[in-house]
Amino acid sequence: MKKIRVIYLFTLILSSVNIWAQYQKDALLYKDPNQSVERRVEDLLSRMTLEEKVMQLNQYTLGRNDNANNMADPINDIPAEIGSLIYFSSNPDLRNQVQKKAVETSRLGIPILFGYDVIHGYRTVYPISLAQACSWNPTLVQQACAVAAQEARMSGVDWTFSPMVDVARDGRWGRVSEGYGEDPYTNAVFGAASIKGYQGNDISGSKNVAACLKHYVGYGASEAGRDYVYTEISRQTLWDTYMLPYEEGVKAGAATLMSCFNDISGTPGTANHYILTEILKKRWGHDGFVVSDWGAIEQLRSQGVAKDRKEAAMKAFNAGVEMDMMNQCYNNHLATLVKEGKVSEELLNDAVKRVLRVKFRLGLFDNPYTPSSTEKERFLLPESLKIAEKLAEESIVLLKNEDNVLPLKNGSKIAVVGPMAKSQWHLLGSWRAHGNAEDAVTIYAGLENEFKNRARLLYASGCDFDGEDKSGFEEAKATARDADVIIACLGEKAQWSGENASRSTIALPSIQEELVAALKETGKPIILLLSSGRPLELNRLEKLSDAMLQVWQPGIAGGNPIAGIIAGRINPSGKLSITFPYSTGQIPIYYNQRKSGRTHQGKYQDIPSTPLYGFAHGLSYTNYEYGDIKISSEKIRKKDKLTAEIAVTNTGGMDGMETVHWFIYDPVSTTSRPVKELKLFEKQLIREGETKVFRFEIDPLRDLGFIDGNGDRFVEAGEYYVMVNDKKVKLEVED
Ligand code: GLC
Predict the structure, then answer these.
(1) 543: burial class by Cβ within 10 Å (0-12, 13-18, 19+)?
(2) How far is residue 693's CA from residue 645's CA, in Å, rounded to a whole number?
(3) Catalytic-labelled residue, pool 293, 324, 439, 546
(4) Helix extents (H) in 283-381
(5) How many structural domains does the chain have?
(6) Residue 22 pLDDT
(7) Whose CA is nearest to atom 6 of ligand 1?
(8) Are residues 258 and 341 in the same domain?
(9) Domain end point (choices 566, 586, 606)
């Protein structure tokens, strides 16, 4: 009896201790949503052990890894104290189950941050980023990113590893597809628009996600277009070419950044204190955190700057990388490095605060679980599909239209041939997240929808994307002979661009060019539709075709707008965000190159030295007449403002959306400058016969100035030019 009483008493004491502990836990300041984020961060940090702090700085994976470039053994026994997981499932249940383990069984109940690569859509896959930039419509891109954020957050993802804003000028590099092209300003504008789309006004929103600017910095300069290699980037070039998109992305409120793989002139980005701490944290004041790219910390060994994983962890952490993505370096070595005094406790605490800050801002402490929802409630909503289709439409670029062969007249018999005609898979491009190819409207289906009862479609595949098999040529030629016009659908496989997808030439495989040459023998007009994740070498195909339409990798909703343009229901408005070289041999070639000392010499002996299609090239079905540029004053002082205007009239027979690109040129400067620099772009609808005025409010320092190798912007007295197309006006800046 006595024994029972003792056990009862003991149980009573134990349960009251637990209740008290639970009360303590619940009553803890960091648990109080009414407290400020900073107070909650400080309070929580003060309670953490060294081991708990270190675990917050690690990211493992959860679910089946879908990135073939990063195959690693999944860590099956996920600790409740882990800071972050890459979440590969599209259902929130597994995520909530693991989150419950963290929140309810770890000592402090710190929620996990779930990240994923939502690059150009989650399930509603829209055009690749390089195509998005050709729309020159940041508002539309922001809307598309908001769709991606909604689908991702409702599926258990709090954080996307996007936008990628790496300026890239070498089409051999597969990842040129993931950024916004060759121009720093273009990448900056679209990067900021994407961040606003992902994060909304408050990242704690149930349909917003934290963004991640990547890959900080200079990854696009990969030598010879090969991935993961050395990048030679002077400080001057670092600042005048690669840093602007990151500076503007931080200003736009990007919650995080990802450090790059590449070695930046001897100091890999992931061990680069200058960019990660001196600039990002001290000069720009970024208060979120930096995650390494997958394996980028332990790769410091293979880059020859760390003798082992422990030294790699020390170098990356002390440089300013707060979170270790799947490297197994921080979890194994950071605590020891702190105890050995090789990593300061202060720096460790700052890193943990940065991670906790983002988690608090995301609302994960107050709402750690993703509400349940059906796929129908999450994915492919009608308004989402409309945005994807509109973005595909506005990103399509009409490269050539000889004798206005386009748009096609009704009643035509149309031969549709080529490997892209009925492909769904390849329309989605790389980094398709949870996109389903079955959701995609093919080019052929789009043409059927558009031309039903108005034209007759004939089909032949002609050939595969590559290989030597010409057995389909005869059938394709016979089909063409039976038609009035040929639409040849060519392009790249989705896996030919993206990560670890460098190609030695940007020409399409010869089998595709030979198919077009065979079709040419029929004498019928040829319209080329080109789907790719990079600029293409088209000089031979250009000679064989009457019209060429660059449709990129438009995602799931490209088929109908492509057909709408072919039929003339839609007036194409896309313009190139990256130069299309005459041939691979011209690479690197981009619009904002530095001036040569001998403009009349230094040309190639065997090919032209100008590109086939330059930056901002894009045709319309209507004509636009540009007036002269008018400026509010031809002489200003550095601190004055200036307005430039240009009137554009639609003199053709069709409404259209026209983008005006405003460039400046500084003929003489302390530092040699590009032959021209994009400073503003604006897109407007101009109806038939209508005139619209485009305005550029010039701030001399921002718009006429340049940046030096220390990242300091300067504007000098002297002569400048403001340019639009072939129009230009001179102005004088005085001190
Ligand atoms: C990859 C990519 C990076 C991506 C990360 C996670 O290696 O370089 O862009 O976000 O790993 O998948």
Answers:
(1) exposed
(2) 7
(3) 293
(4) 299-302, 309-319, 330-339, 345-361, 375-378
(5) 4
(6) 57
(7) 294
(8) yes
(9) 586
Domain match, 139 and 87 both: yes
498/130 Cα distance (integer angstroms): 11
Give pLDDT, residue 336. 98
> CATH code at 444?
3.40.50.1700
The CATH number of whichever domain residue 130 belongs to comes to 3.20.20.300
Longest dimension (CA), the chain: 108
Domain that holds residue 24: 1-28
Domain-ending residue, one of 557, 586, 615: 586
Does one domain contain both 99 and 56? yes
Decide: 88 in ligand 1 pocket, CB within 6 A.
no
Residues in the chain where the model's pLDDT stays below 70: 1, 14-26, 72-76
**Quick one: which atom of ligand 1 is closest to the CA of 117?**
10
- Same domain? For 2 and 106 the reply is no
pLDDT at residue 1, rounded to an integer: 65
> Has residue 403 been placed in a domain?
yes
**Measured in angstroms, how far is the CA atom of residue 292 from the centroid of ligand 1?**
9
Instruction: Please indicate whether residue 606 is annotated as part of the active site.
Output: no
Q: What pLDDT score was predicted for residue 258?
A: 98
Ligand 1 closest atom vs CA 70: 7
Q: Which segments of 68-192 are extended strands (E)? A: 84-87, 113-116, 159-160
- Residue 2 sits in the same domain as residue 45: no
Asked if the structure places residue 456 within a domain, the reply is yes
What is the tens place of the pLDDT at every residue in 552-603? 999 999 999 999 999 999 999 999 999 999 999 999 999 999 999 998 899 9
For residues 357 and 295, what is the distance between their CA atoms, to the nearest angstrom?
24
pLDDT above 70 covers a percentage of the chain that reads 97
* CA-to-CA separations, 244 to 241, 247, 706, in angstroms, rounded: 7, 5, 11
Shortest-distance atom of ligand 1 to CA 178: 9
Evaluate whether 177 touches 432 at the Cβ level (below 8 Å).
no
Determine the 3-state secondary structure of 324 from DSSP. strand
Provide the whole-model pTM.
0.95
- 333 plus 392 within the same structural domain: no
214 in ligand 1 pocket by Cβ < 6 Å? Answer: yes
What pLDDT score was predicted for residue 16? 67
- For residue 129, the surrounding DSSP H or E stretch is helix 129-133
pLDDT at 310: 98
Distant-in-sequence contacts of 508-511, Cβ < 8 A, 24+ apart: 508/532, 508/536, 508/537, 508/541, 509/465, 509/466, 509/467, 511/463, 511/464, 511/465, 511/466, 511/467, 511/468, 511/469, 511/470
**Six token digits for residue 639:** 């601190």
CA distance 462 to 516: 9
